[in-house]
Each structure stands twice: as structure tokens, then as C-alpha cells.
Records
---
Amino acid sequence: MNIVLLDPRQTQSEIWTISAKRQLEHLQTHLDIQVGDTLKVGIREGKRYLTEIVEISEKSVQLKPLQEEAVPEKLPVTLIVALPRPKVLRRLIMDAVTMGVEKIILLHSYRVDKSYWQTPFLQQLDHYVELGLEQAGDTIAPEIVLYKRFKPFVEDVLPGLISTDCPAFVAHPYAEQPMPFALQHPCSIVIGPEGGFIPYEIDLLIKNGCQAVSLGNRILRTETAIPYILGRLFSAS
């Protein structure tokens, strides 16, 4: 935890309060906080501050804000991912949020087990987002949208995300065109399930404006491919 996220309602007075059990346990166990220490605090969907601890009790930590700090910039990317296995979903969301993805779309495809849509992990996405924001020192959550039907999404929604200044790339190991790097503009990235998209799905994505691109001849896991692609596309030129 590199920042403590607070609900705006916890910051309405001159003295702010941390009362969430998880946050208190982390501060007391891992940081051994003391009165007078400074602490980085963010207001959810708002600004970020350096604060001073003015009081510590068993059930709360009291803070006063000292100065405003910059919130990390987002990556101008929409990440479109075939819904992964539940345990992978947790890591995927946290990592994507930590890396600054602006929007996340979870999508059904032929090789996505229908049972994945019933996982309780989908009801816990906000918690994973919060953990990712705390890791990155960010305060602004990405938009997360779920689409349970592949064809209607690709034909009706995806074309609206694509323009000359905002292309879409589908990672496909058998594509001839290599994945670009060091982009200077927004984009969308489409990543398939374990086992990849079936040929029909790749053809439909291309027909509706996606460019099929390759990361090389190694087949990567979803959770490995995402940080690799983001690092490649948005590294300094």
C-alpha cells in the first residue's frame, strides 16, 4: 500500500479519518505509524495529499492534510480482455489498474467457460481496483464494462472505439504484422482467452477494424501478455 484511499465523506472536516480495518492493520503492522509521521492519502476519484498523523487509536487514525500532490497520469488505452479464469481475473484487474489502464472491458468468447461469469470475483472488482490504486498511488479508477456476447460487442460497440487516431490491436501469435511500440496516441488492445481466439473471432475482429499483430513466436499467458504489451506500446520512444 503506497497510498491510503479515503471516501470523500471521510474528508469533509479539517481532520480526516482512516477507519477501515484492512487499512488500519496495514498501517500498524507494516508501517508502524506514529503521531507526527507523514502519510500519502488519496480521495477516491479526487486529489492526492501528503498528510500528518495527529492521533492514533485502536479504531481510527486521524490526519490533517499538509499539501496537494500530483496524481499519476493514466495510460490512454482501452484494454479488452476475454474473461479469464477467476483467480487470474483478480491479478489481471489489480495489475491493469496499477499500470494505469484507462478503461477495461471484460468480454465473452468461444473458449471462455460460461461458469466464469458466475464467479463471485466479479462482485469484488471494486476491491481489486482499490488494491491496484493503492499500489500505484492513484486515486482515479478505470471504467470497467462487461460484455457477455462476443459478436454484438464486436459488431456494435468495438467500431465506435476505433478511429484513425485511436487504432485497435488484437494480439494474435500467427499474425504477420508485429505489435507496434512507443505509441504517441490512444489505442485499444484486444487479448484473447487461454488458448486464444478461434479463427472466426479473429476474422470478425479484423472485419470490424482491428489490426491483428504478433508479439513473436512465444505463446504468452494473459497475465504475462498484458504488462508486456503495455510496456511495449507506451514505453518512451
Note: Residues 86-99 form the longest helix (14 residues).
---
Amino acid sequence: MEVILEILKYILPALIVFFTAYFTIRILIKNDQRKRDYEIIMKNKQIVTPVRLQAYERLTLFMERISPDALVMRISKDNLTVRDLQNKMLQTIRSEFDHNVSQQIYVSPQAWEVVKSARENIVKLINTTAQSLKPDDPAIKLSRLLLERFMEQEQSSAKVAIDYLKREVRSFY
């Protein structure tokens, strides 16, 4: 019995020291891992945030460029017909959209849906306005009617999308 007590005198303190060291080292390793994870997250934010901001900028520019008033000013020429102007506008919107489609990776799904919806509404406005005129009429008629309908809207689709993108960017800060 005395031998067991003698052994316990040495083993018990050794076990206490072992478990204390084990749990202390374990806590230190976890804290170190959390610190490394935080540094990686911060480094990624430093890289990704400018790219995300650039995506919001590009989508805002896209909305500005496909706004009917901007399209009319940029595309309209004297010798075009309604059909020609309509096709050029739709082609420009499609081209601009294709150029910016990759930006959806960096924006929220809701923001991307707002952008797509705005594009669809603008295309619909152009098509319905063009259908109300004869295809061989001068393009100036389509331009005028399109601008009138655009101005009649309480808030254009492009403006709604731009406002949404701005609100979302503000939420980062």
C-alpha cells in the first residue's frame, strides 16, 4: 500500500502538470489559428473590396449607358429608320450587357436581379415604342417618342437600379 502511495505522489503531480500544459498549449494553438484566419480574411478583403467596388462602378456605368436618353444621344443619326435605330439600340444594350455579365460574381444576387430587370424594362420600352411607329419612319420619331415615354416614367428602371447599387455599396462602410 505504501508503494502505491509513493507512486501516486509522483504520478499525480506529473498528470496535473501534463494536463495543464496540454490544455494551455491547445488554447494557444487555437488562438494562433484564429489570428491566422483573421489575417487571411483581412488580406482577402483588401484584395476583393476594390474589385467589388469596381464591379458596382461598372454596373452603374452600364445602367447609365443603356438609359434611353443616353442611347438616343449616342446612337441616333439622321439617315436611320425606326427599325435601324431600334436594332442599334438593342444591339448596344446586348453588347454592353455581355461586356458586364461577369460583374455578377462580385455583387449580391439581389443587385444582379435589379440590373437584369432594369435592362429588360429598357428593352421592353424600346420595343413597345418602336412597335407603335412604322418601321420605315425616320429614327427621329422613335427618338422623340422614346424620350417622351422615358420622361413620363416616375422613376426609370436605370435610376432604380443605380439607386439600389449605391445603397448596397454604402452598406459596406
Note: The chain has a mean pLDDT of 92.
---
Amino acid sequence: MRQESVSMLVGYARVSSSGQSLDIQNQALMEAGCDKVFAEKMSGTSAKDRIELANAIDFVREGDTLIVTRLDRLARSVGDLHRIIEKLAEKKVGFRCLNQSGVDTDSSTGKLMLSILGAVAQFENDIRRERQAEGIQKAKAAGKYRGRKPTIDPGEVKALRARGLGAYQIARKLKIARASVYRALAA
């Protein structure tokens, strides 16, 4: 249980995949004086389903400061970034970014920097997605890309359908969504 009257520096660290390490971020946050660090291995494309981020936002109190090492560790879209910062502002919690030193919500210049860097981060994410799509199209044209392996066997779905089962029953039996059943039947 935390004491309400003591302001804290609270860190948040995130990597995108389980194969990546949180060690460097955790160390930087501890060196910055964070009293507590919330860390998770989760994609940053959306703030939804990021349990430790939600826990960090829930944990901080008026006068605290949430700290991240880089802005893209917190959010990859301007919309998510602004929603998170608004939640912190409502709780009267500051925000600081270690590697982008101008980002500090205690000043109007820091707020401006936050918006600019958030827009740049989203732009970089969009460019990365476009390049990936171009690479996939190029690989498909060369016959080198086959996509991910199917998670269900359309033949099994069709066999169950031939036995008289409806889409809902097939979906429950195979533990898949009904939309997947319809796609398999159409294939």
C-alpha cells in the first residue's frame, strides 16, 4: 500500500515481443529515480489490452510523474498518446520522457514537443507499415510469399458442415469464430 502524500516517480517500460528484453529500459528508469516500474511485453500499436500501462495509470496519484525511456514505448499513435496524457492530466500527474528530453508535461513547450514527437512517431509507424505492405506485394509477385499458415483446416469445416452442423455449432466445436467458419466454407 502506498502513502498518499508522497510524490513518486513511476516508470513504464514496454517491448513488443517476448523475445525482446526489458532490461535496458528498466535500468534507465531505475537510474532516473523511479520508485516503481511497470513493465510488459506487448505490442504498442494500441493502448488497448496493455494491462501494465493501465495498472501504471491507475497507480499514479496527484503530484506523481510517469516516466518512459522513449515516447514510442508509451504510444505509437497520436490519438493514444493524447488519451493517455489526458488521463494523466486529469489525475494531475506529470509525464516525462528520458530520451526525448524536451518532453515534460509541466511546461507548455514540453506539451508542444510531446505533440510534435507523437505525430512523428505515428508517421514513422505508418511508413513502416507501408514498406511492409510493399515488401509483401513484391514477394507475392515473385512467388516467395505465402502468408501465414492457416490455423484451421477448411476441409474439416466442410466435413462438419456435410454432417449437418450449422456454422455456430462448427465454430464451438473447433473453438473458432463463426466468421472463420464462413470463410472456410467459401474457400
Note: The chain has a mean pLDDT of 86.
